[in-house]
Amino acid sequence: KMFKGKEKEEKEKKAREEKAKEAARADASKSAKEKSDAARDPKPADKSAAAAGKAATPEKAGRSAFQNKSVVRKDGKDSDSPQAAAAAHGTKHLGDQPPVALELFQARHLGGLLVHKERQNSSRFIPGVAPQLEKLPLLREVKPAERPELFIKKLKQCQAVFDFNNALGDLKSKDIKRGSLTEIYDYIKTSHGVLTEAVHSELISMFTLNAFRTLPPPSTNNGVEFDPEEDDPALEPSWTHLQLVYEVFCAFLESQEFQPNFAKKQLDVSFVTKLLDLFDSEDPRERDLLKTILHRVYG
Is the overall model pTM greater than 0.90, yes or no? Predict the structure, then answer.
């Protein structure tokens, strides 16, 4: 009797569990159906928002939509505003969506829209407080005894890096640095006894601070991998400074006064590794000068 009683209790317990599971599945199915019905039949407020979105005028030219992504219709016209497009499809503002969710939303719901990411420049500049340079006297205008100290000051001045994605920013300081780089190049080429141990250290630091930077992965506007034989390269926006930095460094390595014993502390394996990484630059002018510098370093 005790055994049969326990067996009966077990059967009743299993029956109750089965009923609870069936009730839970029924509730889940009902909830999913209600959500599906709500998505197909938006509320009146959503319908009015959709109508307002469809009637919205195009954004003004030059405005960047979807957080620095230009959105263009297949017919070439600008799309409606992100807010109106979002309201038309009963979603939140597109700017509130995570980047991946944003692209999925655009691909699935914004029919007729083609999203093109802006082409990245060859280098990425981390914005910060731009240095304000002060124009120094020319090396030829000061006494010979004062030139070594002034030369070091000019090398330190050229270690400042500017944002060339902003073409109109820091114009005065950019012009001062460009003039200093030109003067440094001529001074190394025409003067004697100028490449002291301190100059070696400051000049290598000037090169590394200007040249070594993070490069974005090469890609075209539609996200396809960059093909150097078919696609136009993204030219380095800071080339007016960077070219002079490379030429100064080449003149430094080619000078008869260059002392490997002074430079070997900085021209180490890490330096060469970073130099090789720069060959990923899309700018062919930079890659040509990199070849020359690499030959000089190993020579």
Answer: no
Cβ distance 157 to 176 under 8 Å? yes
Question: Are 158 and 184 within 8 A, CB to CB?
Answer: yes
Residue type for 34, please?
E
> How far is the C-alpha of 76 from the C-alpha of 71, rounded, in Å?
10
Q: Which of these, 95, 183, 158, 166, lies nearest to 127 by C-alpha position?
A: 166
pLDDT in tens, 62-111: 444 434 443 344 444 444 444 444 444 444 443 444 444 444 444 444 44
Report the SS3 class of residue 157: helix
CA 68/CA 59 separation, integer angstroms: 14
Enter the tokens of residue 137: 């006297």
Q: Which of 121, 256, 266 is nearest to 204 (CA)?
A: 266
Contacts of 70 (CB under 8 A, 6+ apart): 64, 116, 118
What gap in Å lies between CA 286 and CA 243, rounded to an integer?
Answer: 8
Residue 147's identity, in one-letter code, is R
